[in-house]
Amino acid sequence: MSETESIKAIKGGEFLIRETQADNIFIPEEWNEEQLMIAETCTNFLAQNVVPNLSRIDEQEEGLMPHLMDEAGALGLLSISIPEQYGGFGKDFKTSMLVTEKLGAGNSFSVAFSAHTGIGTLPILYYGNDAQKEKYIPKLASGEWKGAYCLTEPGAGSDANSGKARAKLSADGKYYLLTGQKMWITNAGFADIFTVFAKIDDDENLSAFIVEKDFEGLSLNTEEHKMGIKGSSTRQVFFNDCKIPVENLLSERQNGFKIAVNILNIGRIKLGGATVGASKEVITQAIRYANEREQFGRPISKYGAIRYKLAQQAIRTYASESAIYRASQNMEEAMEMYMASGLDETKAKLKGVEQFAIEAAIIKVHASESLDYVVDEGVQIYGGMGYSAEAPMDRAYRDSRINRIFEGTNEINRMLTVDMMLKRALKGELDLMGPAQKVAGELVSIPDFGGSEDEGLFTQEKKYIANFKKAVLMVAGAAVQKLMTQLGKEQEVLMYLADMLIELYVSESLQLRVEKLVGMKGEGAAKEQLDIMRVYINDAAGNIAKAGREAINSFADGDERRMMLMGLKRFTKTEDINTTQARRNIAAKLIEENRYCY
Amino acid sequence: MSETESIKAIKGGEFLIRETQADNIFIPEEWNEEQLMIAETCTNFLAQNVVPNLSRIDEQEEGLMPHLMDEAGALGLLSISIPEQYGGFGKDFKTSMLVTEKLGAGNSFSVAFSAHTGIGTLPILYYGNDAQKEKYIPKLASGEWKGAYCLTEPGAGSDANSGKARAKLSADGKYYLLTGQKMWITNAGFADIFTVFAKIDDDENLSAFIVEKDFEGLSLNTEEHKMGIKGSSTRQVFFNDCKIPVENLLSERQNGFKIAVNILNIGRIKLGGATVGASKEVITQAIRYANEREQFGRPISKYGAIRYKLAQQAIRTYASESAIYRASQNMEEAMEMYMASGLDETKAKLKGVEQFAIEAAIIKVHASESLDYVVDEGVQIYGGMGYSAEAPMDRAYRDSRINRIFEGTNEINRMLTVDMMLKRALKGELDLMGPAQKVAGELVSIPDFGGSEDEGLFTQEKKYIANFKKAVLMVAGAAVQKLMTQLGKEQEVLMYLADMLIELYVSESLQLRVEKLVGMKGEGAAKEQLDIMRVYINDAAGNIAKAGREAINSFADGDERRMMLMGLKRFTKTEDINTTQARRNIAAKLIEENRYCY
Ligand SMILES: Cc1cc2nc3c(=O)[nH]c(=O)nc-3n(C[C@H](O)[C@H](O)[C@H](O)COP(=O)(O)OP(=O)(O)OC[C@H]3O[C@@H](n4cnc5c(N)ncnc54)[C@H](O)[C@@H]3O)c2cc1C
Ligand SMILES: Cc1cc2nc3c(=O)[nH]c(=O)nc-3n(C[C@H](O)[C@H](O)[C@H](O)COP(=O)(O)OP(=O)(O)OC[C@H]3O[C@@H](n4cnc5c(N)ncnc54)[C@H](O)[C@@H]3O)c2cc1C
């Protein structure tokens, strides 16, 4: 990649102030044959190995989950993006996202899979030295060893850096002796390798250690009883002067919190992928049930109330998916760029993901809340059967609920979204002030109501999105000015801003996706996708207006308030469209195809 | 009650076209000492008998639930509103609502209690002849016999009248022989008395029968496995030429559907009461947890993100509650009025409830969705512990979800809300056309922007609510005109209208409640309630605007559309208020009192 190209590449968070061309994003309609084959392998694996066993998995039948992991390993599903030198396939990030998405429909199995391949493997892959990687990665890649990740403690959840676990060097200098209690550890019941975070002596920051299950002083509590993902092993892990050879310190002393954060960045976008996979499956089940179940003499899929739900489920899922793969591609390109600029592969990958940490947090929130919407309406479509443990919605509903809690709660991710954005602006990495001032200037000038001459298929939506950006910049700019250092304490304002950013990013991703799709296949082949885009952006405008209004009303007064509210109205104005008809069109195709088909 | 008073009494559905005076509603701040003592009995009963046993109850420990029912019976809790002649306390409807509310915090026990005292007892109480009442009611009132209600079948849920169960007279004319399969029958596992709905021969409509568990030909399936309310017995009940003495036909042949519907009317408002009771308990738990749990060096209740949630939980709950007791009082007054006009007590009670069936459906939807909001944020506030079966939110979250499904799904109740309203208008019972035309006229005249001189504490909110009514009338009137007989098929429009009606009714109830409260205790003692009112109505305006806009855009075009949208904007305009500060005030008091306190 040439220097000029790398300068032009979009940076994380820059979506707020820069326009993206549809050609520059990746859309899921572009998967190549090899990727589709891998996806099919995943789907077949679930159909054959996981779906028939969901109840046995949820009962945590002895040995079943590790056995499924072995089988997934035998198919290569645990090592898609592991470098070939460690026995993996060395595929790109998007392909690993696709695998995560497809397996995301596998309920508890999906959680075990994600934890193993993500937080269970990546700390060592990205931060291990050669010896550590050679020792652990091939076995994690094959599934012979299973991985877990021990960060959370009873008193340290969202505030992960505050954990009490402590390590000290043994008298002979050969071991770290680790004492502490870790909680909510996924895969703990069968994991062979634990990446454990703890402070050494009185360090300010965490360090990370690679701990094997047989190291002296490690013990497991019994399984936690949970609302859902009951098949996923979750335990407390106790360390009592646990003997960790010094060579098992991961990366440098006190580098643990950074590792934890960076691994979570990947985890967040991956979680987005998994929830989209789950959503698609739930939608398909809901469509099938609605087509089969008859009341008042016809299938309930004939009723507008049901069609509305099916359409909304598809709209939210398609929108999330658009953002996820756009960001995945961005990460991949950033990785390539960093590699081209001379960074080694591992560092380049980490920096690529970190670059788009804002987008990852956005996606985590949007996709997990979309899935919760999808399962909730799934239950409702099933009626009484939605409440039955014999039908699939009960499990889907319970399993889904974890996604807004782990990998950083959605509150934490919302706040991070805004926080990271502002920090980048402060550091001069993102020029928000310039554009924000420009918008502020626009507020006092006479608005340009001249309709553009160009009446292209996406003219209007592009204008809306440009306006959404102005809305966010206006509110964020004013909030920063008004509240200054207080802003961190004004969490409600952070939440409103996050909601605005999320709707902006997802709207834009969706618009660009549909634009690219129309470019590829023509307008006729994307009629419903155009409807999805229109309805989503119409609703997004309302959400942005509401959040913006609450924010403005919380910190502005008098004339300034009036002016900003007027600006907000202008920036969130959309033409009236028949959303009801659009949703019917979207649902009609789902019902006809009897499955999620977008 | 004098003739003039009875003429002036408000009718069901009339809230849309008539103003109510704050003095004319009942508010929960008016419970008298006796009622508060009864409430305390309920609270103590739960604390001593139910809460310590929640897990055992959910495991359906043999005999436990019927035993708890017996204990509740011994305290008189099963017979609060049963006439004294049948061994009850003969208390008024509101008091029975209060008991339902308080016991609503009892998870599965609440469901067993509600089913027994509601659908299990009331069909006989309201429709039984003297002999039937004398035989069954005293034992149902004491709890010696437990009741269940068999309407739903595998193929007949929402469409309850379509069931296949059939009864025919035996050759000797002494028995009805009933054959069929009933599904999802609450309390079936231990019920002694089943009210069963089935058609006789080829009747068009259902009849109802009182069936004792020992009647030959009745059998039970095993317990259903459910998402939640696991302690509530739910079974299929099979009837195989089940021998029912002819004297156990309830009411008249083919009167069953009417019985079912009328009993559901009561069930809906009672469900509202129960969900409010559950909400308050969950909010208290969430507050306590937020006050105890520390992250980043302080209790999480100090964080704006958490305070926002606590405030919203309280706002929705207080709003639901306002509507519930307003409607309960209305029902009670209607009952008295009917009695005064010469109807016998039973008929008067039924007609009183039926009169406010629209309000009951509204309440069912609003209160069940409020509880789902409350438990969802409850889980979120608990973070990882929200997902643990050891903490209370998991159960609350799963148990809550049934409420949007039974007693008529929320979709069915939304449609009924609009449907009943329009039917009453057609029958001339409600003059909607006049007011709707007046609003339509207003659309083409110059709006009166003159601010009123009177700047009372509620002037603004009263104006908003008057405008909300105009918004509903405008959209409903146009929808009826445009879509005519098609309207039933345009379910989306029915749903939008229902959402508008719900927000209107609840907003008005809340405003009237706070007004009456201020009248009773002064403004200073109701500061937070005033904030609750302002935030709720502010949000309601947004919701009404959104639903109205989607409705209008679905059926109107051109100038007409433009005019209606302008009208809608005018009718849903509210002054900007600092909702963030208001929510903080509301939360501050909750946090300080460490419990739900409104
Ligand atoms: C099933 C399951 C599996 C898990 N797997 C793992 C695993 O494998 N490894 C691991 O290390 N951890 C794991 N976790 C832990 C998970 O990451 C934490 O539960 C999560 O980070 C939240 O922490 P917490 O539970 O302590 O909640 P808390 O941090 O106590 O949060 C409680 C509430 O307070 C809010 N809150 C907290 N701080 C703030 C603030 N500053 N401002 C505003 N609001 C705030 C939160 O958003 C939440 O709403 C798992 C958890 C579960 C339930
Ligand atoms: C735990 C539990 C306890 C219960 N207890 C009892 C009991 O004690 N006695 C009893 O008789 N019944 C009981 N029920 C049954 C309950 O009342 C029904 O489940 C409910 O009425 C819904 O019917 P259904 O399950 O057949 O759903 P369906 O009617 O099949 O509905 C499926 C979906 O279609 C929608 N739908 C249906 N018709 C239409 C339409 N015309 N237009 C638009 N949408 C439509 C529904 O809203 C729902 O979203 C219980 C159910 C449960 C789960």
TrEMBL record, chains A, B:
Alphabetical list of PROSITE patterns matching this protein: ACYL_COA_DH_1, ACYL_COA_DH_2
Parts forming coiled coils: none
Domain Acyl-CoA dehydrogenase-like C-terminal residues, every copy: 467-570
Gene3D superfamilies found in the cross-reference section: Acyl-CoA dehydrogenase/oxidase, N-terminal domain (1.10.540.10), Butyryl-CoA Dehydrogenase, subunit A, domain 2 (2.40.110.10), Butyryl-CoA Dehydrogenase, subunit A, domain 3 (1.20.140.10)
UniProt entry tagged with the keyword Oxidoreductase: yes
Entry-linked Pfam families: Acyl-CoA-dh_C (PF21263), Acyl-CoA_dh_1 (PF00441), Acyl-CoA_dh_M (PF02770), Acyl-CoA_dh_N (PF02771)
Domain of life, source organism: Bacteria
Acyl-CoA dehydrogenase/oxidase C-terminal domain segment(s): 255-417
Annotated Acyl-CoA dehydrogenase/oxidase N-terminal domain residues: 32-144
Domain Acyl-CoA oxidase/dehydrogenase middle: 148-242
Names of the cofactor(s): FAD
InterPro entries: Acyl-CoA-dh-like_C, Acyl-CoA_DH_CS, Acyl-CoA_Oxase/DH_mid-dom, Acyl-CoA_Oxase/DH_mid-dom_sf, AcylCo_DH-like_C, AcylCo_DH/oxidase_C, AcylCoA_DH/ox_N, AcylCoA_DH/ox_N_sf
Keyword terms of this UniProt record: FAD, Flavoprotein, Oxidoreductase
Family assignment from sequence similarity: Belongs to the acyl-CoA dehydrogenase family.
Annotated protein name in UniProt: Alkylation response protein AidB-like acyl-CoA dehydrogenase
Organism: Mucilaginibacter pocheonensis
